[in-house]
Amino acid sequence: MHRTFTSGLCASIGFLLLLAAGCGPKQPQPGTVLDEALQVNRTVDTFTAAGLDPSGHDYLHDMDGGIALSPAEVGGRNTWIIWTGGNDRFWDVISVRSAGALDFLKTLSSYPGVNGSKPLPASRKNRWRYLGLVNEPCFKPADGPDPGRWGLWLDKRDPNCAGGADPFEDEAKYPGVRIGARGTSVQGKQIPVGSFYGWASGIVGLRLFPNPDFNDAAARKWDPVKYYTDPNYYNDATLIKPYRVGMSCGFCHVGPNPLKPPADPENPKWENLSSNVGAQYFWIDRIFDWDNDPTSFVFQLFHASKPGTLDTSLVSTDNINNPRTMNAVYALRPRLERALLAGKETLAGGSRNNKQFNEFVKPDDPALGWLTKFCEPAAFCQSPSTSQAPSPTGVLAARSEGRFRFGGWSWRSQSCLSQHRTLQRGVASALQSPGGRKADHANRNSRSQEELYVLAGY
Predict the structure, then answer these.
(1) Helix intervals (H) in 297-456
(2) Nearest-CA neighbor of 205 among 315, 127, 99?
(3) Which H or E element spans position 253?
(4) Which of 83, 342, 343, 429 makes a 20 to 30 Å CA pair with 218?
(5) Given pLDDT bands bounded at 50, 70 and 90, which one contains residue 387?
(6) What does pTM read for this prediction?
(7) Is residue 7 over pLDDT 50?
(8) Nearest Cα to 409, choosing from 43, 17, 23?
(9) What is the DSSP string of 59-107?
(10) Pick from 235, 280, 276: which is nearest to 254 by CA?
């Protein structure tokens, strides 16, 4: 059943208005909104960034050509690929405000159509070809509804995979936020709290989290068959799904390693993937409207963007038709240094409050001192953003904008605050390799520096 153009238009307007939430004067001010972590008194120090495991193993070691990384760089790459910054709440709200057009739980499913029902257009078997999304290694498609996961057709980890278990799922080491239904019994089934990294989903960059709103009442209403087959059911704005889906940086930035592409792109190994080459095969219209419905305004909105060319600055700049490539992040040092030739921007207003590299790196640092020459804090900047467009706010702020656009900060995520410094440290180191606001989220302030090891490419 197609959604009408009018209802799709209304849903799209609501969708875009939600993305812009927080910009108006009537919105809550920074520092006044508690995210789920602060609501249960979880502070920054309770979110520890994942680096090497106790045995010294780097789970993602085979990526990026197996390049040797320092422990801080390992932490940065882990954050880049795995950490979703608490935005699972944001994407869950978007699935409602978009009138069901965007539903990552369906994107993760391999429902084949049962008893004459319509199959999902994408599954693990054609996810790369149809959506341009990267299947996570060590998974296989669902062979039936999983009673342990509320009847959903989700990818399953292959027990024979040599990669071993996902260390980021360790709830004891990385305890998630116990709130709502998490840690309670729902309809006789124990709902785990889970890790704050979530569970691997079968798609690189998407992580599964138990939905804290999925209580007994929601479970009684839940019907997995209707979720896949009945538009009146799955488009119901009051429907509460058992899982929320979070998005990491890797969702838009991981792609096939051009020096070692997979023999079968639907079944890559970690050694076939690069963390910074960019998701240059995205079909964003099909991702943001899982039903691929040409009568939907949401579909038409994103269909204007050619495959692989989405500009993630579209929310702030409206450059949805930017024809340049999708988020390839490499060779940032020479790209930054070109900005010294022109493009000096005077900072004003809120831009003067942004943090700059100068506050994290000393000018005489032999490895990273060059990062301080692009900005005079609270005065001016000369730097492009971490994607394509020039940014007068500085590269750190440009990198942070992505978090805001995709829900990491707009919902005051404590997880975001903690991981932020980890990623920042990671990016700073990688920037030199060849080839700000007050913390009101518990999870931003413990990990900003490792981000710097990742964003520049190796």
Answers:
(1) 297-303, 314-317, 332-338, 395-405, 414-431
(2) 127
(3) helix 250-253
(4) 83
(5) very low
(6) 0.79
(7) no
(8) 23
(9) TTTTSGGG----HHHHHHHHHHHH--TTTHHHHHHHHHHTTTS--HHHH
(10) 276
